[in-house]
Structure prediction request, 481 residues.
Amino acid sequence: MQHIGIIGAAVMGSNLALNMESKGFSVAMYSRTPESVSRFLSGPAKGKNITGAFTVGEFLSQLERPRRIMLMIKAGKPVDDMIEQLLPLLSPGDILIDGGNSHFPDTARRTETVEAAGMLYIGTGVSGGEEGALTGPSIMPGGSPAAWPYVKPILQAIAAKTADGEPCCDWIGEGGAGHFVKMVHNGIEYGDMQLICEAYQLMRDYAGMSAEEMRDAFSEWNRGELDSYLIEITRDILGVTDSDGSPLVEKILDAAGQKGTGKWTAVAALDEGVPLTMIGEAVFSRCLSAMKDERVRASRALPGPVPTFTGSREAFLEQLRGAVYASKIVSYAQGYALMRAAAGTYGWNLNYGGVALMWRGGCIIRSAFLGKIKEAFEQNPALSNLLLDEYFTRAIDGAQAGWRCVCAAALQNGIPAPALTSALCYYDGYRAERLPANLLQAQRDYFGAHTYERTDAPRGVFFHTNWTGKGGDISASQYTV
Prediction:
């Protein structure tokens, strides 16, 4: 009898099976396409403690009780269809684990459905791509708490490990908590990638740097506070040449794809009323990039400045490094604020330092920087915003002069830098004791009698003014969308 079963024999499912087997766990494999199971068994899994099944019944008969079944299939309807097929064949206490990029409300709903049928459900984020699945991903499980003891030994064994040996996997919370944290991870990933892309464009189009010079710059950044997987692979990408010797990256079409998790993060922020501005700009930047044909036409019709670099390139690169780091801090601060708000909405008891630990290894956003986040929440578990932690306050204070110069240079030279600039605007807005929303509230009261609060009255007491002399004293009720 096998320790665990995996449904889905594509890259992620196959590599997770090999990872599990290498850690001493026997695995049963099933797929709706029998050919993929046959190829896997005769190829990478040959000679290993991995069995195959070609019907659901055969698959279930190979698993020890309680059955642990991990779904590594496309998110959405395929997951619901597979659950519907499996439930009548399972026994009380059996555990279903969805390891795909499912939307967290779907995971919450499925948890309730499976529990009502007498079984247990886990929705877990798995980050690290093909390589991570094989050698150690970051794993973020949530769902039925009673299932955790049964899957913990396997998931923590196959997860990435920090430098001191801690697994990048721990229990997140009930319902859709695991997939929510994975969703925020992916939103932050969008932000990190957009910041790097903006730095690349400023290096290339403003500072006039070659691919080799940019590679050297990113290599230098990777030895400091920006040390991360994404900076590392950017360095490597810039060193790859095409068959004619030119940089391969310059021949790749500038139209980005996306699978929806960044959009989900932005929508969740709107639902929670959290200003997730930098990640939102990263999502919209991908949307704008996809409008390639329209942008080509616009480039021939719309005027703008010709980038002109002046000054020291070395000094500019140092300012740019600080601007990327400061913006990165803002991005993570916004992501953590969203997790805190959602935890209040859904009743989750999230361990924010623990989340940073889970992201330290295996996942796409892994970086040395995450250790500082873990330390911040260890020192103050009730920290409302990362910007208020002493380390991050000092870091932004040291970088902000250069950050402002970089943003000004981008705007003056017509080089789009939506992530860098929106992060700076959030920082200035967050530190502002007074914002112009007083005028906004007056406008709302003028045209819609929506009322306002006064600085010389207690919070929660609302007033209405008859601004035109033609209105009345009746005001609209208070509500928040």
